[in-house]
């Protein structure tokens, strides 16, 4: 084998082994500007888009012990891999496809599972880890939030905890003794 080809295959093998997923896309019809934009969006999600010969990728998948996805390795293909979650990469590709009508997700690997384009689109619809954790935290905190609202409303019937409520009873208490003192001399004069 040509030493240059071996270097390329070894580089691809390293990326495939380091990535928990592989998404094969057909980038036919994308301009250089669009392809650069796609790469930038994937980079933001922790994924990389690599263009290589399909025959090289077949050899890499065989050497890595991954399932054969030969039917997906036809035409102008690019390979998306990353060290983060597959959700972000699939979502970036799906959103890009919605916007530009290209590229098309063909097939993917998640671990040793082969995923068709429909399953990849379904994965793109799953919320990110951060979104799921945020929803979980909201669910956990909901009962405590309700209790806090009930306690607050119990001690503040109007639901308003402004300083006026706190000073109004004190102001009434201060004026009451003055009114009593003013009433005392009137009663004494009447007697």
Total beta strand runs: 5
Low-confidence spans: pLDDT under 50, at least 5 residues?
162-191
Q: Tell me the Rg in angstroms.
A: 34 Å
**Quick one: CATH superfamily of the largest domain?**
Ribosomal protein L10, N-terminal RNA-binding domain
CATH C-level of the largest domain:
Alpha Beta
Order of helices and strands: HEHEHEHEEHHH
CATH topology of the largest domain: Alpha-Beta Plaits
Provide the residue-averaged pLDDT: 82
**CATH architecture verdict of the largest domain:** 2-Layer Sandwich
Distance between the termini: 126 Å
Helix content: 55-70%
Structural class: alpha+beta
Spatial sequence of strands, sheet with the most strands = 2-3-1-4-5
Strand content: 5-15%
How would you explain this protein's 3D organization?
- With 191 residues, the chain is an alpha+beta fold.
- The chain folds into two domains: 3-126, Ribosomal protein L10, N-terminal RNA-binding domain (Alpha-Beta Plaits, 2-Layer Sandwich); 161-191.
- 62% of the residues lie in helices and 15% in strands.
- It has a five-stranded antiparallel β-sheet with strand order 2-3-1-4-5, with helices on both faces.
- Helix 1 (3-18) packs across helix 3.
- The longest helix has 28 residues, at 163-190.
- It is elongated.
- Mean pLDDT is 82; it is low at 162-191.
